[in-house]
């Protein structure tokens, strides 16, 4: 039993030393991991700051591009409204011309119908006389 206890205490001492070494290694590894994580977080925060600046620049570019697009659209709408006003005037002139031409055509058609009626009436009278 004495030998067994002596063996166990020696084995325990060796186990404790092994465990101590393992804990020391783990604490060193943990310290290294924390330093690595800290560096990574520092890198990420720097990258995030850079990303925010990039995003800010991109948003600024987009807002500038949007403002330019709005100005272009405004100019295009202004051009279209001017063109539409001109087109309406042209259409109005065309309709006025058509209505004048139609009135003239109606008068021409009316005259033709009157002539045809007159000729028919004369022909009827002549046929009755004959």
Entry keywords:
mainly alpha, 0% strand, 130 residues
What does this structure look like?
- The mean pLDDT is 71.
- It is built from one helix and no strands.
- It has 130 residues and is mostly helical.
- It has one helix at 2-129.
Mean pLDDT metric: 71
Range of helix content: over 70%
Q: SS-based structural class?
A: mainly alpha
**Which word captures the global form?**
rod-shaped
How does the SSE layout of this entry go?
Blueprint: H1 2-129
Give a short synopsis of this structure.
The chain is an all-alpha fold. Helices cover 98% and strands 0% of the residues.
């Amino acid at each position: 039993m004495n030998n067994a206890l002596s063996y166990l205490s020696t084995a325990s001492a060796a186990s404790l030393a092994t465990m101590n070494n393992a804990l020391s290694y783990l604490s060193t590894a943990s310290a290294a991991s924390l330093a690595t994580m800290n560096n990574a977080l520092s890198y990420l925060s720097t990258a995030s700051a850079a990303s925010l600046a990039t995003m800010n620049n991109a948003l600024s570019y987009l807002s500038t591009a949007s403002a330019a697009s709005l100005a272009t659209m405004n100019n295009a709408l202004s051009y279209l409204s001017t063109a539409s006003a001109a087109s309406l005037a042209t259409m109005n002139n065309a309709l006025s011309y058509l209505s004048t031409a139609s009135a003239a055509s109606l008068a021409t058609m009316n005259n033709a119908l009157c002539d045809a009626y007159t000729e028919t009436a004369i022909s009827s009278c002549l046929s009755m006389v004959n």
